[in-house]
Amino acid sequence: MQLPLFGDPQNVLGGGVLDTPAAGLGARAPERPVWMCSVRSSPRHPDLTDAQWVDVARRLVSATGLAPEGDPDGCRWAAIRTLDRSVHIVATVVREDGSIHSTYRDAFHAQAECHRVAADLGHLARSVPSVITAKDYRMPTPAIVIGLEPSGAVVAQGSSDDLSATLLKHAGFAEKRDWYGRRHRLPTATAAADRAAIATHATEMLRAARYSVDLDPRLDTELLAAREGRHPLASAGEQILQLTDQIRGATGFGEFAEALDQLLDPDGGILDRVHEALEAASEQVTDLDPEHYALSDRLGFAADFVSAARSELGGLLDEVGRARAHEAAAALAAAPHSATADAARAASPAVAARGVNAPAPPLPLSAAAGPRQTGHTR
Question: Which residue, of 149, 167, 168, 276, has the fewest CB within 10 Å?
Fold first, then answer.
């Protein structure tokens, strides 16, 4: 429902016509049912006419989803113009069908639509891109070489600036400075099955930032998958299946914690990587074509859901760690009782009279139990 566009605010908004949909919801009405937006034109260009301001207001309420064109159940809104070079849009977030409009990213949609309006009016220079990304630049830097040394270590050489160093650290590399210069290498504790995946991920990020990267073929997951006749992403799915089997087959909280840490680790766990992938997909859709903002929103919602799940499970690893410590303490408490019973049987005359072989004396507790592990393992 569109109210009169121009005039005295008291006349336009009088009678509570915008409040009617929210009042009909009763207790279900949102606490903040009013949506407002002010739009101003550039003083470097002539002021818009009334007809142009009408078009601007309609385009904004349509772009934000408040009142899409042709939707009879859209939100009620009014555009008020009391000063030159500006218009004020006031709306209710309660639609005519009783549903509530989601204001998520409305500011982004309004800004993008204002940018398109300015371009349509000729207020923007067409020769200058509106959004500058890393794709618009080419960095004349030497090639970064990610290779596999004879010792099995994965080393990245040639990273001479902070951006490439940050990307390598984000992928999992550790920086090392010595007389050879600035180098990055994966920790020696990195599993052999993960080295190629991390090196390939680092290469993709560096190339997306316009770096030239030479990746050792032995670390290229696409080449490795092609040799095995599999899709490159099949290995990731298989790793998650193996992790599922590891969780189901855990015989104690120690094994359970090791598997769960790979899933919930906030710094590189599976959920963390899925969240990053969804966020990147949402941003990339907008970079490819701002018109597909609905698709970007869906991916953004999915990323938010994964982030919420990750936050909800944030303290779970600590709870599993406590259960693991309790299990270890119970095992240690039971060990002395078992050793005393074996010693009693070994010295018992009844055992000797029956000719039963007595068990060998137990090893000292420190040697039999082995080193205790505490904390999370990765």
Answer: 149
